[in-house]
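Consider the tokenized backbone below.
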């Protein structure tokens, strides 16, 4: 899609005049110096009822270097050494646009250049690390890594660029980003920052926990079954090879009829608690109101997935609050959220394009408000945060009392087998 500024658009004048549009750029920061390609991560919002149509990057005034459909942008521009007056711009379906200027200097000097987190800044966990590197080695940069503390290598990636959300506890950090080239050389850049504290409590590495159950679901009614004559699946815990923590879990759809799904579920708090919090007196669950589902996932071929789903569920006093988040992949590369009252999925307009053969990081924030309504607050995928703050009425669930989480894999029209590894699954509640 071309940017709206070069399309002939028809809209009501009053609607267009009242629409508000805004762009938020998380990377790069204004005035930054980088080596090699320049990473850009940004989101856009608008009060136009039809939403944001597209976003783009101007490498210089009037020079549109990149355009993408939707309200989020995550890419890198290859620019020659020099100083640039770039801009990130959005166009909505009402004919409005908004932009943010970003001055960037691209250097040919070798070394590591960190664009996020900013030095001496305060950030939330996971801390977003974005960096690039160059080397005088003719063969180039082999890999980059993050040391969260001296001698503690927390993350590595092949190549000369790094974009990763690192889960860290509250406190002050003297981190180092390092590159290693193919000639045996290396260079580093230090960054000092603070991770803000949280008043919530967390369960960590839940993919490694006990208490998981699984069920197949198939068309047309998608009723739970285990075993299922039309679907086969598996889950393997304590996977060391290729995992981040050494205790990843590999989930697989291994065969079956078209469009069958597999649901994995764990009861965390309340009835059937796997975490030692049965809440038999029903005094804890009704007090909980803010939840964060944070997980890393890896698939060799994500295109084979119809969708993957991450849910938070709260049940008490006959109410059923299902905070459903579905990343449609073969189904259209878009996030949907679940409307409890109608039992239907609602498209958000937020793009969902998880990477294959790479670790993806998703953070979902939801809330139960004072009226017992569900509030979908935000979705963050690979460092790009999209804010919703959408409110829905709860459903009913008589006889249930507790907090649970789900992970679900949906099969495509051929039910092609595929696998996804989950790691560092953290659930925070307060």
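A designed sequence for it:
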């Amino acid at each position: 899609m071309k940017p709206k500024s070069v399309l002939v658009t028809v809209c009501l004048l009053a609607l267009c005049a009242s629409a508000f549009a805004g762009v938020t750029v998380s990377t790069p920061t204004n005035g930054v110096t980088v080596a090699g390609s320049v990473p850009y991560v940004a989101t856009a919002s608008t009060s136009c009822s039809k939403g944001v149509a597209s976003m783009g990057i101007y490498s210089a005034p009037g020079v549109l270097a990149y355009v993408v459909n939707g309200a989020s942008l995550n890419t890198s521009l290859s620019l020659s050494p020099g100083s640039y007056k770039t801009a990130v711009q959005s166009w909505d379906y009402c004919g409005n646009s908004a932009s943010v200027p970003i001055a960037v200097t691209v250097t040919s000097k070798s070394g590591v250049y960190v664009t996020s987190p900013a030095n001496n800044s305060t950030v939330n966990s996971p801390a977003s690390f974005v960096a690039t590197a160059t080397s005088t080695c003719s063969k180039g940069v082999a890999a980059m890594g993050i040391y969260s503390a001296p001698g503690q290598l927390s993350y590595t990636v092949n190549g000369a660029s790094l974009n990763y959300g690192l889960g860290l506890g509250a406190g002050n950090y003297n981190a180092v980003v390092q590159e290693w080239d193919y000639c045996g050389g290396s260079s580093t850049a230090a960054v000092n920052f603070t991770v803000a504290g949280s008043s919530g409590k967390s369960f960590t590495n839940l993919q490694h926990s006990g208490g998981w159950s699984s069920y197949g679901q198939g068309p047309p009614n998608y009723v739970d079954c285990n075993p299922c004559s039309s679907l086969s699946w598996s889950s393997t815990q304590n996977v060391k090879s290729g995992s981040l923590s050494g205790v990843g879990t590999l989930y697989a759809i291994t065969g079956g009829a078209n469009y069958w799904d597999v649901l994995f579920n764990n009861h965390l708090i309340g009835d059937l608690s796997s975490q030692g919090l049965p809440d038999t007196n029903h005094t804890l669950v009704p007090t909980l109101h803010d939840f964060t589902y944070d997980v890393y996932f890896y698939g060799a071929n994500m295109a084979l997935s119809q969708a993957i789903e991450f849910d938070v569920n709260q049940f008490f006093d006959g109410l059923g609050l299902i905070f459903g988040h579905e990343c449609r992949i073969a189904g259209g590369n878009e996030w949907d959220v679940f409307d409890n009252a109608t039992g239907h999925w609602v498209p958000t307009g937020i793009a969902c394009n998880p990477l294959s053969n790479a670790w993806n990081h998703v953070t979902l924030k939801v809330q139960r408000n004072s009226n017992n309504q569900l509030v979908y607050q935000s979705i963050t995928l690979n460092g790009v945060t999209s804010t919703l703050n959408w409110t829905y009425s709860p459903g009913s669930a008589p006889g249930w009392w507790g907090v649970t989480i789900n992970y679900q894999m949906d099969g495509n029209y051929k039910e092609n087998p595929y696998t996804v590894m989950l790691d560092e699954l953290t659930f925070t509640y307060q």
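The chain has a mean pLDDT of 89.
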